[in-house]
Amino acid sequence: MSETKNVVLDFSECKYIGSLHKVIKENLELPDWYGNNLDALWDAITGLMGVPVKIKIVYHPKSSDTKKMKTYVNEIISVFREAEIEYHEIELKVDID
Q: Which stretches of 7-89 are DSSP H helices?
């Protein structure tokens, strides 16, 4: 069995949906052709991402612009939660305001 990787996805300073996906892509080491949307996220974490993995999502918005991302951050969390339930090699922790 592979060693568990620990990944932190800190969305606290993200002002745009694209910047949220950039954090995901860089920290999960996804390919350049990653699609930057929730469907692509599902495909990536269930088929491209190395497992086992422990993922911590951090979201403490630093400005009004970053606070506007809360709904989308929650959607991202939902995708990871669904993957955590379906694929037992993914563990999710969430630290959000």
A: 17-27, 38-47, 64-67, 70-86
